[in-house]
Amino acid sequence: MNFVTPVTLVKLEEGMLLLYDGARLKEHPPQQRLEFWQHVIRYLQIPHLAVKGDEPPWYVWKTRPTGSFELNYTEIRRVGFYNPTDHRLKAHVPAAKSFAFLRVVDPTQAQVKSTPTGVDVEVSPGGAVSLDFGHFEG
Q1: 55, 67, 79, 113: most buried by Cβ count inside 10 Å?
Q2: pTM for this model (two decimals)
């Protein structure tokens, strides 16, 4: 990590603070920045779900606390996909330990298929869809 930008990790009881030089990180190509963040997530042992695709799909993650009907999960993670291109985008969210696929939210020109290996997503041009995953300790 320090080859890309100097990194300082400060821990105080259960909290952590990660300090890095964003200007130096921005100087590197996107692939190297992606590898930097993958390394940070792996080092800090943050449980997460990967998104895979032929080309980088447009997506964003959001986290929210559980509702009263979702008591088995510590939090709910929602990934939203959007396709601004003029061709169909495909993505795959592999199944992961301590995550459960819950629901499809607001599909617009999109198809979602749950399989034993994960969730397959196809989004048409101008389409969007969100997926909810429950995270539990395990």
Answers
A1: 79
A2: 0.75
